[in-house]
Write a structure and sequence with these properties.
The protein is an alpha/beta fold. It has a single domain, classed as NAD(P)-binding Rossmann-like Domain (Rossmann fold). Strands 3-2-1-4-5-6-10 form a seven-stranded parallel beta sheet, sandwiched between helices. The protein has a three-stranded mixed beta sheet with strand order 11-8-12. Strands 7-9 form a two-stranded parallel ribbon. The chain binds NADP nicotinamide-adenine-dinucleotide phosphate. NADP nicotinamide-adenine-dinucleotide phosphate binds next to helix 1 and strand 5.
């Protein structure tokens, strides 16, 4: 069975990947915390704790021990969490390059996640279906700049520019987690903020497909679902989750970071679930607790 090692296993994406992939693949996770922090409500996969990947040789030692066929990198310094410039570049730009080299040395495939934030999102009628791989990235913040520098597209390396929503294990910084924390309040939703990400459950299903059915796919790809405004997405979560939150549309803010994934869909045959399905997936994800 294919051995898959997930780095950043306690993150929003990492833990959902571990939950979803472990039914079908031989899954191990690496986490920065001690191994016994792994939630008891998640599948009891092989956990390597205390893995700070910024420590020199940490990745090599980890790969020597785990001997993965595929490494899925869910480690990142995301923009919702405060970060120093040095940390952002070390984690988002330099670490993926180091991991890709370590994967090559160990004969493992490297799967990595970049972001729609490598683009500014400045609205223009010229971009009818969103950004394609042919558009020149123009990031406007530290997160986007650092993630762009970490994109790896050589042989054996697959980088997906994408985005996702889902449950976190700790914290309330993701869109869904922030929304769930607004019970009893009034919030505004941006009609002009256009989004084409996934649920973390749908992304995990896609990663499984890429491992099992597209073992040779490499390069940098745009991977997106049908576009939706942030207002419509919040509204779906509130309606389908019967959340006690008053949502008002706001048309002041405009940002169009839709990604056009025509190329990816043609090559892989992938079709994303509907937003109704993906919202239901987010609503049905349990919130796990650290042990
Ligand atoms: N969230 C999105 O919408 C989105 C969109 C596009 C791309 N991405 C990318 O997808 C990846 C996963 O995102 P996410 O939202 O799941 O992030 P997340 O919830 O913040 O998880 C990131 C994980 O990285 C771990 N980590 C950070 N520095 C580390 C280090 N030096 N050594 C070992 N582990 C370290 C963290 O460990 P601790 O638990 O110990 O802090 C955390 O578990 C990131 O690369 C992100 O840039 C995310």
């Amino acid at each position: 069975m294919t051995r898959v090692l997930i780095l950043g296993g306690l993150g929003m994406l990492g833990h959902e990947l571990a939950r979803t992939l472990s039914d079908h693949l031989d899954v191990g996770v690496a986490i920065r915390r001690p191994a016994d922090a792994w939630p008891s409500s998640l599948p009891q996969v092989a956990v390597t704790g205390g893995t700070d990947l910024l420590i020199p040789d940490a990745a090599s030692r980890l790969f020597d021990a785990a001997r993965p066929d595929v490494v899925v990198n869910c480690v990142g310094a995301i923009k919702q969490k405060s970060m120093a410039e040095l940390d952002a570049f070390a984690i988002n730009a330099e670490l993926p390059r180091l991991l890709a080299r370590a994967c090559a040395a160990h004969g493992a495939r490297f799967i990595h996640f970049s972001t729609d934030c490598v683009f500014s999102g400045a609205p223009t009628p010229a971009r009818a279906l969103g950004y394609t791989e042919q558009h020149t990235p123009d990031p406007v913040d530290l997160y986007g700049r650092s993630k762009l520098r970490g994109e790896i597209g050589g042989s054996g390396c697959l980088t997906m520019r994408t985005s996702f929503i889902g449950r976190e294990i700790e914290g309330h910084v993701s869109l869904a987690e922030w929304l769930f924390a607004q019970a009893g309040k009034s919030i505004r939703g941006y009609r002009g903020a256009l989004y084409s990400g996934f649920s973390t459950t749908a992304m995990a299903a896609l990663v499984r497909e890429l491992i099992q059915r597209h073992p040779d796919l490499s390069g940098i790809w745009h991977v997106s679902a049908e576009a939706i405004s942030k207002y419509d997405l919040l509204n779906l979560l509130i309606q389908r989750g019967r959340l006690d939150i008053a949502l008002t549309p706001d048309s002041d803010f405009q940002c169009d970071r839709r990604l056009d994934s025509t190329r990816f869909r043609q090559v892989t045959g992938w079709t994303s679930p509907s937003w109704e399905e993906m919202v239901d997936q987010v609503l049905s994800q349990p919130r796990h607790s650290l042990k």
